[in-house]
Amino acid sequence: MNIMIVGVGGQGTLLASRILGGVAIKEGYDVKVSEVHGMSQRGGSVVTYVKYGDKVYSPIIDRGEADIVLAFEILEAYRAMPYLKKGGKMIANTQQMNPMPVITGAMEYPADIEKKLAEKINLQAVDALSLAEQAGTIKAVNVVLIGLLAKSMDVDKSVWIETIKETVPEKFIDLNLKAFELGYNL
Question: Is the residue at 83 inside a domain?
Answer without folding.
Answer: yes
